[in-house]
Amino acid sequence: MGRLIDESDLEGTAAAQLHNADGNGQVLLVCEHAANRIPAVLDNLGLDEATRLSHIAWDPGALAVAQEISRVLDARLVASTVSRLVYDCNRPPEAPGAMPGRSEVFDIPGNRNLSDTEKAARVATVYEPFRTLLADTIASFPAPPVLVTIHSFTPVYQGKQRDVEIGILHDSDTRLADAMLDLAPKQTEMNTQRNDPYGPGDGVTHTLKLHALPNGLMNVMIEVRNDLIATADQQKSVGKMLAELIADALTLIANKKEAQCHA
């Protein structure tokens, strides 16, 4: 099984793409697990088709939801085009989950016993172009953007049913998450929780820690249970709701700041 990859193995499609490049909105969206593409040289990582289509390979529905938010907010969107099993762009190179040998209950044969050279090739081919595109996009904004990452999660994980429907996740900066959680009960009937089903302790806030926190950008990570965004209609509905929730939360924050200035 060939396991060394380079840019030519992506067959003309970059590892990361910028959608709505001319968007003028304040929000910059990120979808790290947008695709389940595995370069041919990796021989499907030894996985069957059902596994390659499952949640371990990507975040089903997340890109479509992000695209709807992008449409509503006129937001730019940075998305990966390569499966998270090849390289998880929401993990640093040193993290075990960046190129996992096992995901949930699934073994990943093509990720077993990777050499340092094989790992470095994936970092250079997938992670670095994604990281660079996101950093360059942030730098291109005339004013600091608001960073919002979009993910989906499986309703059953390791045999356990998850009741949470939308997770509002944050690291040390809670500003946007706090405002969204304050407004969520008025704007959606979905079970919306803080740092659930994942939180900072699970290592899922890498993008926020790398790109938002050092730059002082307001930020949040949104997780949507993927059975609620399985169809195009659901994706549009949830995307529109989340876009409105983000916009209203930013307005709430701005109004509070203005009130404090005049207090």
Automatic annotation (TrEMBL):
Keywords: Hydrolase. The keyword Disulfide bond does not apply. GO terms for molecular function: hydrolase activity. Pfam families: FGase. This is N-formylglutamate amidohydrolase. It comes from Profundibacter amoris.
